[in-house]
Amino acid sequence: MFLTITTTGTPERPATDLGYLLHKHPDKAQAFSTSYGTAHVLYPEAEAGRCTAALLLEVDAVALVRRGKGKGRGGAPDAALAQYVNDRPYAASSLLAVALSSVFSSAMKGVCHAKPELPGQVRPLRVEVPALPARGGPDLVRKLFAPLGWTVTAEPVPLDSAFPAWGDSRYVRLVLESDALTLAEALRHLYVLLPVLDDAKHYWVAPDEVDKLLRVGEGWLPGHPEQRLITSRYLSRRWALTRQATERLELVRLAETDDSEVEEIDNAVEAETEAEEKPTPLAVQRREAIVTALRQSGAARVLDLGCGQGQLVQTLLKDPAFTEIVGVDVSMRALTIASRRLKLDRMGERQASRVQLFQGSLAYTDARLKGYDAAVLSEVVEHLDLPRLPALEYAVFGSARPRTVLVTTPNVEYNVRWESLPAGHVRHGDHRFEWTRAEFRAWAEAVAERHGYGVAFEPVGPDDPEVGPPTQMAVFTLTTPKEAKAA
Ligand code: SAH
User: What is the pLDDT of residue 74?
Assistant: First the structure.
């Protein structure tokens, strides 16, 4: 595995500064042992006018296999291992990326104690990787690097140059050139994008991979047109992690957007909802039904579980009967928008003391949810996979145990009445299921029975004689205090 970095220079800004930047002296060939083999750094040329550093990784196939086995516990992709043992010694890949980050870690961070002014300077750079496995081909290589300011040459490597008829291999010869980047930026691009092109990560993805990706991607990954592909491939298509990273990148973007833009998003969402649900938006009717039911229950301290972008919290804040309102959601993006909508940072102290937003998942019991009068789950249960519902049930009815619980969910029977909804489709792309009235009843009654609650059902929206209302609401009321139930 082989990669070269070349820069050109002038007597005032000699190319050999590359040695300082990389913390590796141009006169010496050095070897470093890494977990996958030996990494050599050498300089095929080192003049003031032009200097090239080469990183050569000699993969130790035995160490790789041993490492792979060790990581095998917990379901590591052992089947993919054979492939590494085949092409890893020759092809640049995620292993090279790891070597890059361990051998040039200071350079990647942009640290140079000897000449602190150097890392911040852009300079002419040329990176060449003679054999880069590129799933997605030369096209994808260009799509990944060009938006970052690189001029990209990606030539397919023939499978066998003696037999051109065999066609191309999945490797490309990659040359990247730019006059507009710092060396640290270049290394960070390579560190993320080499494994993305390889698309077969060699080690098990750990949760801190997300942090690493965000750190190394700072300044270029948010806003990259292929951000989604990069994130998902980098994290080996592990959706939960990808989603987390995407949300956090979105947060970075949101942090850089101003409030007027959030209002625009809001207005667009409202406009969309209204267009769908003329004349009186169902979402508004739902909130009215919830507020009415909460008032009837006499609740003062209310949880909005799966609060989304905070519309209900906002409505509840307007009523002084609700002294404490807590919005909980698993999505940081939703919470960020909610906090902007509520203008939490500009709220007077009294108002602010009534409201709280925090991130949490309803699939886990959470001590923070105990001690409230009521909990609302408005259009939330259908966003969980059915097998996760018992966990939510326990978290809310078994552990948090508020006196009143309101659950709303779409009535799938009503879908035939939505003009714009094709037959057999759910109302929202993220709905994991939608229930008939009978199904909802059966679930709610079983939950009530298991946890010592009584339950009543209320329609929300026009109650169609044939198919029922568009939204169904269950109002649970605690009948058996915990002590009694335990006894
Ligand atoms: N209650 C709001 C939002 C409904 S959309 C309303 O009525 O308009 C569903 C919300 O549930 C989303 O914001 C989603 O992020 C959240 N959600 C989905 N799964 C969750 C979980 N396991 N824990 C907490 N929130 C979840």
Answer: 35
DSSP state string for 361-416: -TTS--GGGTT-SEEEEES-GGGS-GGGHHHHHIIIIIII--SEEEEEEEBGGGGG
Q: Is the CB of 362 under 6 A from ligand 1?
A: yes
Nearest to 304 by CA among 276, 342, 267: 342
Cα-Cα end-to-end distance for the chain: 68
Q: Tell me, in angstroms, the distance from the centre of ligand 1 to residue 156's CA.
A: 46
Is residue 147 within 8 A of residue 180, CB to CB? The reply is no
The answer to whether the bond into 422 is cis (omega within 30° of 0) is no
Token digits of residue 76: 């590591």
Which has the closest alpha carbon to 308: 447, 462, 461, 428?
428
| DSSP-based three-state secondary structure for 305 | strand
What pLDDT score was predicted for residue 351? 87
pLDDT at 260 exceeding the cut of 50 = no
Contact 173, 138 (CB under 8 A): no
Asked if pLDDT for residue 165 goes beyond 80, the answer is: no
Residues in a beta bridge with 46? 51
CA of 330 to the centre of ligand 1 (A): 7
The domain segmentation of the chain, as residue ranges, is 2-203, 256-486
Burial level of 408, CB count in 10 A (0-12/13-18/19+)? buried
Whether the Cβ atoms of residue 74 and residue 204 lie closer than 8 Å to each other: yes
Tell me the per-residue pLDDT of 121-144, one tens digit each, with 9 for 90 and over.
Answer: 999 999 999 888 888 889 999 999
Give yes or no for a contact between 82 and 202, defined as CB atoms under 8 angstroms apart.
Answer: no
Instruction: Tell me the CATH architecture of domain 2-203.
Output: 2-Layer Sandwich (3.30)
Which residue CA neighbors atom 8 of ligand 1 most closely? 308
Query: What average pLDDT does range 49-54 have in this prediction?
Result: 96
Are 2-203 and 256-486 in the same CATH fold? Answer: no
235 Cα: distance to centroid of ligand 1 (angstroms): 24
- Among the CATH numbers 3.90.1150.10, 2.60.40.1090, 3.40.50.150, 3.40.50.720, which is that of 256-486? 3.40.50.150
Diameter of the chain measured on Cα atoms: 87
